[in-house]
Amino acid sequence: MTEDPATQRYALPPHAWPPPAPVPAPPRRGSRVLRAFVVLVAVVGLVAGGWWLRTGDPLPVPQARPAVTADAAPRTVPSPGVEESDEPLGAPPAAPDSDVYAFVAKQEDGTTPVAWDPCRPVAVVLSPDGAPADAEPLLVDALARMTEVTGLQFRYEGLTDELPGGDRAAYQPDRYGDRWAPVLVGWRTPEQEPALAGDVAGLGGSASAGPEGGPLAWVTGSVTLDGPEYAELAAGGDAAVGRAILLHELGHVVGLAHVWDSDQLMASTTSGEVLDFADGDLAGLAQLGAGVCIPEL
Ligand SMILES: [Zn+2]
Q1: Which of 275, 284, 276 lies closest to 4 in space, CA to CA?
Q2: Residue 73: what pLDDT?
Q3: How far is the CA of 202 from the centre of ligand 1 (A)?
Q4: What spacing in Å lies between the alpha carbon of 233 and ligand 1's midpoint?
Q5: What local confidence, expressed as pLDDT, does residue 200 receive?
Q6: pTM recorded for the entire structure
Q7: Which domains does the chain carry?
């Protein structure tokens, strides 16, 4: 199973889409950027695939955040264990028997995927700026699906004034309080987010953190979708495709990378007929819902 590049493009609908191009062996991003109180790895810029995929074009990777080195220093990470329960809040469903999935990142053992901490909810906020009229129900529906397929408890928290894009801080206490910043979902134009230029329909990914010497977990993430392209989909009666794009991107947020099986929603290329997670996707998602709880985070 090949690792996906940490950055990929999700291109939209071309009326004549290009044939699948082989993905060059991706450079694996270092999984440990900073060894101190907390390790943070930015994996921003993952993008959905589908029949619109293009690969390459790495996006800027936010700098690892400095460690807390002195009591007097302002916190650059939240207090540990915010909302952490003693046990996972949910359990992944029984998964199909499939190995057609790939993970964005793995732990030091080389096999266990980096996943979200299942002992706390995955908070999600929506940027309404430029979002389609049905963005909220679309997102709520997609998050319910993500909870269903992972067992992770996605919690939609409403609207935010934060705009997608740029070097997003994983900890924004002034906006979100003493916790990791919620996953941010929003729509932008290619003018506002140059990474959406061309036939790219979305960007998505997560950032991980972990205690010194311990496992990593995804702690925040983002999905940035192409507003004009969504408008075209809606006008063309292809709302289901818009939902599929969002699910695919959220698949990246929880830690799935692309696969080459076009029957999977996480495929790099597809005929366009796959509108929901398929067996391989579901098998990977179930593993991603069974991550380790990290109260130190
Ligand atoms: Zn993708």
Answers
A1: 284
A2: 65
A3: 9
A4: 18
A5: 78
A6: 0.79
A7: 8-14+29-63+77-288 (3.40.390.10)
